Amino acid sequence: MVMQPYKGSCHCGAIQFSFEAEPITKGIRCNCSFCSKRGAMMHLVPGEKFQIDTKDDALNYYQFGKNQAKHYFCRNCGIHTFSETTRRPGQYIVNLGCVDGVDTFALETTMFDGKNLL
Ligand SMILES: [Zn+2]
């Protein structure tokens, strides 16, 4: 498969990110206590393909439970952009709703049972 460049951002644009991936046709939905409230479709991206460019100190993160993950969000607009977890070191879990040109309503859904696995 040919890798394709993707760009994403939070709502206000203070957090920008980019990565390369095979054309995105699927999204992961997780049923853990955090993801079920935020309802986002996610996608895994290897860390070496992921670049973050933020303004000032816009990037903050939220942790809960066993602190296995850092759920990054924008301090200004509150949008969750991506996460890092100790389950998948070196990978980012990107909120596809923040990625330009990806229609999350048109994607096939893969379920992740975070409720029981995390
Ligand atoms: Zn923002």
Write the layout of secondary structure elements.
Layout lengths: L3 E6 L5 E7 L4 E5 L2 H6 L3 E5 L3 E5 L4 E4 L6 E6 L5 E6 L5 E5 L12 E5 L1 H4 L1
Parallel strand pairs: 3-10
Antiparallel strand pairs: 1-2, 2-5, 4-9, 6-7, 7-8, 8-9
This protein binds zinc ion.
The site of zinc ion has 10 residues, from loops.
Explained architecture:
With 118 residues, this protein is mainly beta. The chain has a single domain, classed as Metal Binding Protein, Guanine Nucleotide Exchange Factor, Chain A, CATH 2.170.150.70. 8% of the residues lie in helices and 46% in strands. It is built from 2 helices and 10 strands. It has helices at 33-38, 114-117; strands spanning 4-9, 15-21, 26-30, 42-46, 50-54, 59-62, 69-74, 80-85, 91-95, 108-112. It has a 5-stranded antiparallel beta sheet with strand order 4-9-8-7-6, with no helix packed on it. Strands 1-2-5 form a 3-stranded antiparallel beta sheet, with no helix packed on it. It has a two-stranded parallel sheet with strand order 3-10. The radius of gyration is 13 Å and the shape is globular. It starts with a strand and ends with a helix. 28% of the residues are buried. The mean pLDDT is 93. Zinc ion (ZN) binds next to loops.
